[in-house]
Amino acid sequence: MNFMKITGKIDEIRAQVKAWKKEGLSVGFVPTMGYLHEGHQSLIARAVKENDRVVVSIFVNPMQFGPTEDLASYPRDLDRDSALCEATGAHMIFHPEPEEMYAPDFCSYVDMSVLTEELCGLSRPVHFRGVCTVVTKLFNIACPDRAYFGQKDAQQLAIITRMVRDLNMDVEVIGCPIVREDDGLAKSSRNTYLTPTERKAALVLSKAINFGESLVKDGETDCKKIIAAMTELIESEPLAKIDYIKIVDALSMEQIPTIDRPILCAMAVYIGNTRLIDNFTTNL
Ligand code: AMP
Asked: From the CB of residue 5, how many other CB atoms can be counted at a distance below 10 Å?
């Protein structure tokens, strides 16, 4: 097993990455908010496979949470996360305090239009500005050759990919497939909020995703019909409350009426007080 380091200091991560680069080693980077599960682990494992050195960041970024969201209650367990990172072959964890990342007079933001104005951007108005700003900072700190993001957060992946292109960031963004529980529920740190009854009810998300995907595979191209069928399925679960179910162009995130290009079908659904997301994409 490799000897993994943990630091909360920007200077230390910079010095280490510089030293690796001087040796000609490639650096992979996996940004996370911690409370790691097999979804995160799949990203780390891929990064380990494709790079000489791997940095995992664990930072619950206050800037991407709205005032009524779960920043204070977001689950945290650095010891468990460290063990998982080390066992998966990561070389360094960056775990800064918010004060290390944001000076009291911080006032520089990365604010994207269009792609952030659909789907989760509508119900989480400050979210993607926080994500783009922190990911830019993390890229500037860790200077990775490659960065790994999950398809679980499909809109985030599209936004980061676009940001890197638009702002000429020197990093390759790599999307990784959704990892699910055996029964189909997409793995998420927020699944820990669910009571046993809610956990059962949450299965309705992946069921609706499978159903929508099968309709598309069977040749249905009318987005309204697909969304109506998925909505009906979700509404059959009394504990579920739909935030949105939408079909958008996979690149622009704009809603489309007909499936005539690569699409993202994404949903956010409350199970009790917990907001869960899931999606499928298709290249049809
Ligand atoms: P988070 O800690 O929730 O910010 O997630 C960190 C990274 O892990 C993001 O790129 C997520 O898309 C990815 N991720 C989270 N859950 C999953 C999952 N179930 N499958 C694949 N990737 C995931």
From this structure: 14
Residues 136 and 15 occupy one common structural domain:
yes
For CA atoms 260, 175, 242, 111, give the dihedral sign: negative
Predicted confidence (pLDDT) per residue in 79-126, tens digit: 999 999 999 999 999 999 999 999 999 999 999 999 999 999 999 999
- Look up the domain containing 157 and give its range: 5-176
Distance from Cα 219 to the centre of ligand 1, integer Å: 30
Q: Say if ligand 1 is within 6 A of residue 189 CB.
A: yes
CA of 201 to the centre of ligand 1 (A): 21
Active site residue 95: no
Using the 3D structure, point to which of 176, 210, 238 is the last residue of a domain: 176
Beta strands 263-271 and 27-32, pairing class: unpaired
* 152 Cβ below 6 A of ligand 1: yes
Asked if the structure places residue 182 within a domain, the reply is no
pLDDT in tens, 227-274: 999 999 999 999 999 999 999 999 999 999 999 999 999 999 999 999
Helix, strand, coil percent content, the chain, rounded in steps of 5: 45, 20, 35
CATH no. for residue 222? 3.30.1300.10
pTM of the model: 0.98
Residue 138 CB–ligand 1 contact under 6 Å: no
27 Cα–ligand 1 center, Å: 19
| pLDDT above 70: percentage of residues in the chain | 99
Q: How many domains is the chain partitioned into structurally?
A: 2
